[in-house]
Design goal:
Length: 603
């Protein structure tokens, strides 16, 4: 049935969509009135659990709000790319709170000729079964919808909590909400639904959580307190301020603090609060990203904040805005010492374009951070797809566990998935190691990943001189595996290997022994044409090229390379038509020996 035949733009018309959509098992009773200037009202007599909104990703956004008894129900209308000519997928608007009522849905910015009027549905169910071949197996993803930065990570009572920047109404950035997932092993995640949603102060941008063990804020002993940026849309751009919310049920539900916002500024970029307890001074610290600097605040009670200092002038990279800061005490390997590491995400301005994470190692006295190496820029990951890296609060056994968003703002909205978009990296334990008196971060895959290992193939040692092919990496290869290899160099200037699939798509990697570099090239890795910034060659500095230890984590649409037990890490997305199933080694001059090659299926 095509309503376009009957509707003219801006007509005031009530259309009873009484037909039955048997394919979806949905009975529709959707009544649409079109008003002037692309304003529309959908009247729902029988409220079911969901209104299923049809999305067309390349359509402009329409605005949706719920009206009950003449009142808007959402403080911020949601922006939805409602279908004009084609339906890419549906997103559910939860109406369960209005069961038994007659409600109206106000939809503005949508012409009456749009396909959505025909395709909008009411339903008691929403099918969220996976339909994406690129969805990773052992990485965290949202069940549906868009995700960016990890937020509010904390550990309590054996559970790792991970909140994240989430759009439940489409697989592109927008309608920022905190989604929530939990895990007991940092590898397998349970979806906990949405957690903190937009209010009068705006949508919910990035932030952090703390466990208030001593009840300094007065919400209760052990309350989980979330800090986030309220981003209020205005005709002149977002207005950003900091807000807080507390949870008395271990992070499941949050109550917003009644005196929000707790910190305001006239600065345009003023966001991403990371809060932690500074034990020696017995006070809380908040790190905030403000333009291209980090501001440091202190508080006795989490509610009243005083600015102590700012950090950033003449320090590190400044090719873009600074975002999502963190400050953590990290153990120095081989000593009993710990050093403060300021993690600072930057976008654009990363070493290979777009987003990246830099860090500074130094001293912190509770008020001021001093970088020990002001002339150096240190990068945490040498790939294109590790951003918004932050650490878990209250992690067990003094561990410092980091997680990054596995994408890059250059193309994050365009990667070839639709049901969901974006993934997080695997969790990484951070320590500091020394090279010539300089301290660098080691990012080691958190040991929990080893529990995800399934079937193992171990290949006997072999010498590579010329070309050596390792066929069929795993017989029932579903594209989710770890390769752990040790190579002894016998005088070769280049140690090269590629992951290849049956379609001839490949990811080429090599150690340049002369330059002491590890290189990864994804320019013919599979689907690469969705952005000109995607085909890329990334390069990491390497310490030792005599004995090489490399672990590659492959998970359908990503490769994370950990060299020398995490002395360097390189994270890159890839979108192969089918899993890479072959490893081809190549050598120059005297060749090299692959001493061991273990392949583990990960699940
Ligand atoms: C980083 C970021 C944050 C902001 C959030 C909005 O990727 O830009 O600075 O809070 O994303 O989604």
């Amino acid at each position: 049935m095509n309503l376009n035949l009957f509707l003219s733009k801006n007509s005031l018309l009530t259309v009873m969509l009484g037909f039955s959509l048997t394919a979806q098992g949905v009975e529709n009773n959707v009544n649409v009135k079109h008003l002037a200037n692309e304003q529309n009202i959908v009247v729902l007599d029988t409220v079911k659990k969901f209104l299923l909104l049809p999305v067309q990703e390349n359509a402009p956004e329409g605005k949706v709000n719920i009206i009950v008894n003449n009142q808007f129900q959402l403080d911020q209308s949601i922006n939805v790319r409602l279908a004009r000519e084609r339906v890419d997928y549906y997103v559910p608007l939860d109406l369960s709170a209005y069961a038994g009522k007659t409600i109206s849905i106000d939809i503005t910015g949508m012409p009456s000729s749009s396909l959505c009027w025909e395709e909008i549905k009411v339903s008691d169910t929403f099918d969220s079964a996976n339909r994406e071949k690129f969805r990773p197996v052992y990485h965290h993803t949202p069940v549906y919808g868009w995700m960016n930065d990890p937020n509010g990570m904390f550990y309590k009572d054996g559970v790792y909590h991970l909140y994240f920047q989430y759009n439940p109404y489409g697989s592109m950035w927008g309608n920022m909400t905190w989604g929530h997932s939990t895990s007991t092993d940092l590898v397998h995640w349970t979806d906990e639904g949405t957690s903190i949603v937009a209010d009068a102060w705006g949508t919910i941008f990035s932030g952090s959580c703390v466990v208030d063990k001593d009840n300094t804020a007065g919400f209760g002993k052990g309350a989980v307190i979330a800090f986030y940026t309220s981003a209020k849309p205005s005709p002149w751009g977002d207005v950003q301020s900091q807000s807080m919310a507390y949870s008395l049920d271990n992070g499941k539900t949050f109550t917003k603090y009644e005196h929000n916002p707790i910190l305001t500024s006239s600065e345009r970029d003023f966001r991403d609060p990371k809060v932690f307890w500074y034990a020696p001074g017995k006070h809380w610290v908040m790190m905030l990203a403000v333009g291209q600097e980090i501001q440091i605040y202190s508080s006795p009670n989490l509610k009243d904040w005083k600015k102590e200092s700012s950090f950033g002038t003449m320090q590190g990279a400044h090719g873009g805005v600074w975002e999502c800061p963190d400050l953590v005490e990290v153990p120095v390997e081989g000593t009993k010492e710990k050093k403060w590491v300021l993690i600072c995400n930057i976008n654009p301005g990363g070493p290979f374009g777009g987003s990246a994470t830099q860090y500074f190692v130094g001293h912190f006295d509770g008020k001021v951070f001093v970088n020990e190496s002001p002339t150096l820029t240190k990068w945490m990951d040498w790939g294109k797809d590790n951003y918004a890296t932050v650490t878990w609060s209250n992690a067990p056994a003094g561990r410092c566990i980091a997680l990054g968003w596995m994408s890059n703002w250059q193309y994050a909205n365009n990667v070839p998935t639709t049901q969901y978009r974006s993934t997080n990296t695997i969790a990484r334990d951070l320590t500091l190691y020394k090279v010539d008196e300089e301290l660098y971060l080691r990012s080691k895959p958190s040991a929990e990943i080893e529990k995800a290992r399934g079937k193992k193939i171990n290949l006997p040692a072999f010498k590579v001189s010329g070309i050596h092919e390792v066929e069929s990496l795993l017989t029932d290869n579903n594209g989710a595996y770890e390769l752990d290899m040790i190579i002894e160099n016998a005088g070769s200037s280049k140690i090269a290997f590629s992951l290849v699939n049956g379609k001839g798509e490949k990811v080429s990697m090599y150690y340049d022994v002369v330059r002491k570099q590890f290189v990864m090239d994804r320019s013919v890795s599979g689907v690469v044409d969705f952005s000109r910034d995607f085909p890329a060659v990334t390069v990491a500095p390497v310490d030792n090229t005599d004995t090489i230890h490399l672990r590659l984590f492959v998970d359908r649409s990503s490769i994370e390379a950990f060299g020398e037990d995490g002395k360097f890490v390189m994270t890159n997305l890839v979108f192969p038509a089918e899993p890479y199933n072959k490893l081809i080694f190549e050598s120059e001059e005297n060749g090299y020996t692959v001493k061991s090659l273990d392949v583990y299926r990960l699940q």
